[in-house]
Amino acid sequence: SVQLEMKALWDEFNQLGTEMIVTKAGRRMFPTFQVKIFGMDPMADYMLLMDFVPVDDKRYRQVTNTQPVPRYAFHSSSWLVAGKADPATPGRVHYHPDSPAKGAQWMKQIVSFDKLKLTNNLLDDNGHIILNSMHRYQPRFHVVYVDPRKDSEKYAEENFKTFVFEETRFTAVTAYQNHRITQLKIASNPFAKGFRDCDPEDWPRNHRPGALPLMSAFARSRNPVSSPAHQ
Amino acid sequence: SVQLEMKALWDEFNQLGTEMIVTKAGRRMFPTFQVKIFGMDPMADYMLLMDFVPVDDKRYRQVTNTQPVPRYAFHSSSWLVAGKADPATPGRVHYHPDSPAKGAQWMKQIVSFDKLKLTNNLLDDNGHIILNSMHRYQPRFHVVYVDPRKDSEKYAEENFKTFVFEETRFTAVTAYQNHRITQLKIASNPFAKGFRDCDPEDWPRNHRPGALPLMSAFARSRNPVSSPAHQ
DNA sequence: TTCTTGTCACCTAGGTGTTAATAT
DNA sequence: ATATTAACACCTAGGTGACAAGAA
After folding, report:
1. What φ, ψ does residue B150 adopt, rounded to 5°?
2. I need a labelling partner for A194 at 20 to 30 A (CA). Which of A209, B1, B89, B149 fits?
């Protein structure tokens, strides 16, 4: 079985509609997809990998709310379906760089896919995951048992297991569309600290009950709670 | 067979008497020990590791030349034997973090031991290599074939091979003793660029034949030449 | 006197969103 | 209009030798 790490943070993003930047050179995901694994055979070899499947066959489009809104308005924009999805290229997979490794090694610490990068460059030759901007994707996590038997191909079907966490769904974008997503990224990603206007360490102490809860996930995620995988 | 990378740079350091800093927290080696490997079974698993053996049973001592020397003197100090070596602690080994891996993976690119760190802390619990300051050491590189047979222990003797490059010998120190070593480190280690007083990129062009050859190894090492292993 | 330790400025290396310019 | 790109300032993370202070 598998537990998603930083579930509280993923939930907060998912509630707003998670967006992930794609660039030509490749961009990491934030939050990073990381899991805790249980129940492997400690002595057996496993390959760990991820892929990304379209959530639907729609292409999205950002529509700006042009009506006058109060300052600090919450819903200045939203997603609209803009047509049928672009034809999917044969989806790439990302093997965790430690693969293959023994079950004992995978289980003894959190497995982090922080080397995984997303790109919109169809001609990418860095092995990055290729996605279409303005499309929605569902990350999937696969565990493959390395079968020592000679005719292991025959058992391929029973030698892997797939885990899907719906809270990790996201829209691929080349620039953030929802400003609240931007703010949550800035508040929770250490590499974006330069864009913060207050010290996040002070937030839990200074937090007023009525304030915008942009930082709540970050505060909570310091003691991450995991969730069981869907299927 | 194994080829040492950056051999020209190692030679230049070795000619001056290589020194490596050891610290409580652990310090990387420079030059980094890296090799190119040939002749493995592409499909077989191998473990790669390093250890460090005392070159002799001597403790060293730096003696300062107190006689008046001309400016820019070349030999202001030297090493003297200072007594018998301190009792050796059971030597640690450093497994290359990618171990175990297939021969094909080890051979397809340079294997770099840049995660290896040296410490003088006898109580170190970070898994770093523990060395005595003011003692000389010979790095050794070991290739271990992971024998798939059940009684593999019986074949341990024939399942590993050791490679020794004498030009990688060094003296462990807590502070540099030979100023020319310091200068060569500053000239060739990118992380010490802050202490340079000229642009190393310009050196090959501006190099006057009569000038001090401090940068020559760095200039040459841009097209690294390898050397065969001793044994 | 000699050796060791801890702090520091200054780097490498690379992950952020911003912004202005460009493409569609 | 909307979407994409490239350069950029500002971070994280961590590897340098210098230096002053301390230890042996």
Report:
1. -65, -40
2. A209
Give the residue with minimal CA–C1' separation from D13. A191
Q: What share of chain A is helix, strand, coil (3-state, %, to 5)?
A: 25, 30, 45
Could you report the per-residue pLDDT of B50-91, keeping only the tens digit for each?
Answer: 999 999 877 888 766 544 433 333 345 677 777 776 766 668
Distance in Å from C9's C1' to A153's CA comes to: 58
Tokens of A87: 């034809």
Beta strands in chain A (DSSP E): 2-4, 19-21, 27-28, 34-37, 45-54, 58-64, 77-84, 93-95, 101-102, 111-112, 117-119, 129-130, 136-145, 160-164, 170-173, 227-228
Q: Do B80 and B178 touch, CB atoms closer than 8 A?
A: no
Asked if strand C contacts A214 at the CB level, meaning under 7 A, the answer is: no
Convert the pLDDT of each residue in A196-228 to its tens digit. 987 544 443 333 333 333 343 333 332 333 344
Listed as ranges, the nucleotides of chain D within 7 A of a protein C-beta are: 2-6, 9-20
Q: Which two tokens stand for residue B123?
A: 């109580």
Strands B170-173 and B227-228: unpaired
Nearest residue: Cα versus C1' of D14: B191
What is the Cα Rg of chain A in Å? 19
Nearest-CA neighbor of B88 among B40, B136, B48, B44?
A: B136
Question: Is the Cβ atom of B185 within 7 Å of strand D at any atom?
Answer: yes
Q: Which residue is nearest to nucleotide C10 (CA to C1')?
A: B194
User: DSSP letter at B4?
Assistant: E
Determine contact, residues A32/A113, Cβ cutoff 8 Å: yes
